[in-house]
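Supplementary Methods. Inverse-folding protocol.

Structures were first reduced to a discrete structure-token string of length 374. This string, shown here, constituted the complete conditioning input.
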């Protein structure tokens, strides 16, 4: 029974409205999403008014309540693409604002809220790239240009989140702050070291900075995640979006940093990604080890993003191992697909059981802070 029905029944019991009026009001209010999950509420508010199913998937945000949301979203995408082609950027931004007022603030539709947030970010990217392209000095200086590129994002996303309380906009706001900080760090390091291109001149230092940024992003995502272990509020939604980007960032920064150190110690020059995945057994098994550790982390914190982020690396490393074992070139691709598909199915089907096996071997103090076992 929903909270809306309970409230109407209580109002009828107290004589505020009649039982007949309560029965007629319920479908009327439900059709207008009144009393349903509000996009614009606080982070600590529940995402759903229904009692959670113990076996229900709670990892992803619940932003689709019916085909009505999908239909509205299709209309948004088609309209904005058309406007982008026939009108100037200001008209597109105005359209995003009007649609957000109607569909997010008033009607509280969550899937359109996600799409409009992405549309705003795309508008900002296109606008700032166009601006930087007109400034040769910014275009030539990577770090300075990156600071100028990212600078408007925190302001615009903060305003959007303040107005509409969309979890994705908060996650993107946090990422934009990380990006601004990262660009500032590279600019400061370049100034201290007297380098105009830190990424090329100091590749190992660059990887260390990127790895530290990925760890910081992961810590922030876990802060949101652990504040809602039952995953019933929009804090978990914010954590979902943070993990979705953090997982591949942490995975590949770790792989590149470990292999960069490994190849340097063996005297091999780190020139491109061929050295990473096809340099030999050691490199391939290193990639596999990192991927497996990330998958283990995903199991522990109940986030599948850490599994899906490693599938490409898993396939490439597996292919390298098969190649060094002189497997037939005509079969390597099919064998890799078979192995990766099998891994996905085993983890996907046995996710809950695997989590119980892993988490129950952790100290009780840690278990109590993790998402509940299902």
């Amino acid at each position: 029974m929903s909270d809306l029905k309970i409230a109407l029944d209580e109002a009828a019991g107290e004589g505020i409205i009649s039982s007949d009026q309560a029965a007629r009001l319920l479908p009327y209010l439900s059709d207008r999403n009144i009393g349903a999950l509000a996009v614009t509420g606080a982070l600590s508010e529940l995402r759903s008014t229904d009692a959670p199913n113990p076996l229900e998937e709670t990892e992803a945000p619940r932003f689709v309540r019916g085909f009505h949301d999908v239909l509205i979203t299709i209309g948004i995408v088609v309209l904005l693409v058309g406007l982008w082609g026939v009108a100037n950027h200001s008209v597109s931004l105005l359209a995003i604002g009007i649609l957000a007022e109607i569909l997010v603030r008033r009607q509280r539709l969550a899937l359109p809220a996600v799409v409009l947030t992405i549309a705003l970010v795309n508008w900002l990217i296109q606008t700032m790239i166009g601006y930087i392209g007109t400034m040769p000095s910014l275009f030539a200086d990577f770090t300075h240009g990156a600071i100028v590129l990212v600078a408007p994002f925190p302001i615009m996303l903060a305003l959007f989140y303040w107005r509409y309380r969309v979890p994705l906009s908060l996650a993107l706001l946090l990422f934009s702050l990380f990006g601004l900080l990262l660009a500032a760090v590279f600019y400061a390091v370049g100034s201290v070291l007297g380098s105009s291109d830190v990424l090329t001149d100091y590749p190992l230092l660059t990887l260390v900075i990127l790895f530290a940024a990925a760890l910081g992003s992961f810590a922030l995502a876990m802060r949101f995640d652990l504040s809602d272990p039952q995953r019933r509020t929009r804090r978990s939604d914010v954590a979902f979006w943070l993990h979705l980007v953090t997982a591949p960032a942490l995975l590949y920064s770790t792989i590149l940093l470990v292999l960069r150190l490994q190849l340097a110690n063996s005297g091999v020059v780190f020139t491109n990604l061929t050295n990473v995945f096809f340099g030999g057994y050691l490199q391939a098994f290193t990639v596999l080890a990192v991927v497996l550790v990330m998958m283990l982390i995903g199991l522990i914190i109940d986030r599948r993003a850490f599994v899906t982020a490693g599938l490409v690396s898993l396939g490439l490393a597996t292919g390298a191992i098969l190649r060094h074992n002189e497997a037939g070139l005509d079969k390597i691709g099919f064998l890799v697909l078979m192995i990766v598909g099998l891994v996905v199915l085993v983890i996907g089907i046995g996710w809950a059981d695997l989590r119980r096996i892993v988490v129950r071997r952790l100290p009780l103090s840690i278990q109590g802070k993790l998402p509940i076992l299902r």
